[in-house]
Design brief:
single chain, 362 residues
């Protein structure tokens, strides 16, 4: 068995490949593969002696570089090269990383613009449930001044805000797309490139939300002629900055929660039944049917300790002024705690899934 030095590949560290007799290893600009068949089988992380460099290349790193093709002959990595000693070297590495992230984001925007009419139709259809909410709550408030601390205007304003939060933060079947990438083996090419798959999906998610929001501007501006009256007397303008901050947190929970669910595809073939059950619970406890503070006290406490309320109810309640003072601080702490929780959990499941993931092909 002989050893062959391969690298650096795509700016990464060189590899040493132990090649069994009768085997050949080929390498190009972005991948190392065995011509005889096995491309990737499992994934074993090796110790990275340059964590700073690895973070700069990808702050969301899950195991970008440490790939091992564990066929009969394995691939192991040599120690990382030294980190640049000059400020200019550091800046050049950071700029290269930013250019890579920008290209991925641009790719996501362009791919979503192909379906621009679908986005526009989706935005228009999203206002249809609002009509149902107006008719429903007008019947509930018939002869009443308030319901569970809400006036008729504030209740309708809550559901209007809920639609906007949904438009800006909810993934568009990202979980099923990730599961299909795993099931169909499309993650193979990304595993062999200096791209973190989770960060790659995060850029695609952000690009889709940006395109969706851009197509919602004009319909929303027209709709405000009719729905603007429901925000009269509410402190929505003063609360707008905190609402936007909470919407960012809601989007992060949505994405990492979605990614976590998709990781089930490493162990089961179809994740549809699991996601249907979980999203049904999310719909109920997140404040889609009723505002969370309209539930009985024990159910309010339960909801505010689960992530679902911080995806929908929390941003909408901030805008209309139903969450203030200590409750606001408490809510932000819980929201970003859930962001961190799902970030860590999704990373753990990704690593464990790769340990038993097998892809066969040329």
């Amino acid at each position: 068995m002989k050893s062959v030095n391969i690298g650096p590949i795509a700016g990464k560290e060189p590899f040493v490949c132990e090649i069994p007799p009768g085997r050949q290893i080929s390498h190009g600009a972005h991948e190392v593969s065995e011509e005889v068949g096995v491309a990737v089988q499992g994934s074993r992380r090796t110790r990275d002696v340059s964590p700073v460099r690895r973070w700069i290349e990808n702050p969301f790193s899950l195991s970008i570089v440490a790939r091992s093709a564990t066929a009969t002959g394995g691939v192991r990595r040599l120690p990382s090269p030294r980190w640049p000693k000059t400020i200019s070297g550091l800046i050049s590495v950071m700029l290269a990383s930013l250019r890579l992230q920008a290209q991925i984001f641009n790719l996501g925007v362009q791919s979503n613009l192909i379906y621009r009419w679908n986005f526009l139709l989706r935005v228009l259809v999203s206002f249809v449930p609002l009509l149902g909410s107006v008719f429903l709550w007008s019947a509930v408030f018939n002869g009443k001044q308030s319901f569970a601390g809400y006036t008729f205007n504030s209740m309708v304003a809550y559901f209007i805000t809920l639609i906007l939060v949904d438009t800006l933060t909810v993934p568009n079947e990202d979980d099923f797309q990730i599961a299909e990438d795993i099931r169909d083996g499309r993650i193979n090419t990304l595993l062999l490139k200096p791209i973190d798959y989770r960060l790659y999906r995060l850029h695609l998610f952000a690009a889709a939300r940006l395109v969706h929001a851009a197509f919602a501007v004009v319909p929303l501006a027209i709709a405000m002629i009719w729905i603007g009256k429901y925000f009269t007397g509410l402190p929505w303008l003063a609360n707008l900055p905190l609402t936007l901050l909470s919407a960012v947190g809601a989007a992060m929970i949505q994405f990492f929660f979605c990614f976590t669910l998709a990781m089930i595809a490493f162990w089961i073939l179809d994740i549809g039944s699991v996601t249907f059950i979980i999203y049904s619970i999310e719909f109920l406890l997140g404040g889609h049917i009723f505002p969370v503070d309209a539930y009985p006290h024990w159910l309010q406490v339960l909801c505010m300790h689960l992530p679902f309320a911080y995806e929908y109810f929390f941003p909408a309640a901030i805008l209309i002024g139903h969450i203030q003072g200590p409750d606001l601080v408490y809510g932000f702490l819980w929201q970003w705690a859930w962001v961190g929780f799902f970030y860590v959990l999704s990373g753990i499941l990704w690593k464990r899934g790769l340990h038993q993931y097998t892809a066969v092909g040329g």
